[in-house]
């Protein structure tokens, strides 16, 4: 490359960088002068996007689908998983707010009841004390099951 070519490349680079800087400045000026969108009752509390209407009516929580996927406390669990994981009786589950969806196995069957993990953890902590209390109850139930199974096996083989 000769000196003339190097000089033209440097000039083109400087011009391109100047254009890029001007474009960024225009964008920042436009963003500063444009009024922000006013928040409405249908906006997500976290990010301001449109909140999920079904989630809002079922649980009274303003959250969009993207924020719900990021937060594990906003996961939905069916009744069986909720009872098994948090050792809550059916009477307690009946008191909790639910989101009903069509049963995926058969549309004509009873709709699925989905519970919010945040509510389940809250009620499990109220019932068992804390995570350690819940784990102790799981161990106690597992030991009782082993004892019952041993008694059945003893009766079967004697």
UniProtKB/TrEMBL annotation:
Main subcellular location: nucleus
Keyword Transport applies: no
Gene3D superfamilies reported in the protein's UniProt record: XPA C-terminal domain
SUPFAM superfamilies registered for this protein in UniProt: Putative DNA-binding domain (SSF46955)
GO CC terms in record: nucleotide-excision repair factor 1 complex
Superkingdom of the source species: Eukaryota
Official protein name in the record: XPA C-terminal domain-containing protein
């Amino acid at each position: 490359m000769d000196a003339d070519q190097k000089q033209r490349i440097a000039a083109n680079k400087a011009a391109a960088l100047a254009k890029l800087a001007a474009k960024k400045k225009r964008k920042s000026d436009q963003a500063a002068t444009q009024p922000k969108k006013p928040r409405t009752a249908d906006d997500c509390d976290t990010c301001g996007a449109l909140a999920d209407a079904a989630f809002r009516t079922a649980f009274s929580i303003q959250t969009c689908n993207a924020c719900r996927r990021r937060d594990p406390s906003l996961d939905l669990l069916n009744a069986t998983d909720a009872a098994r994981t948090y050792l809550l009786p059916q009477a307690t589950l009946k008191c909790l707010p639910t989101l009903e969806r069509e049963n995926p196995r058969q549309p004509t069957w009873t709709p699925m009841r989905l519970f919010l993990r945040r509510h389940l953890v809250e009620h499990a902590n109220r019932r068992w004390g804390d995570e350690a209390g819940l784990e102790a109850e799981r161990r106690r139930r597992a030991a009782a099951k082993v004892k019952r199974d041993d008694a059945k096996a003893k009766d079967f083989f004697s």
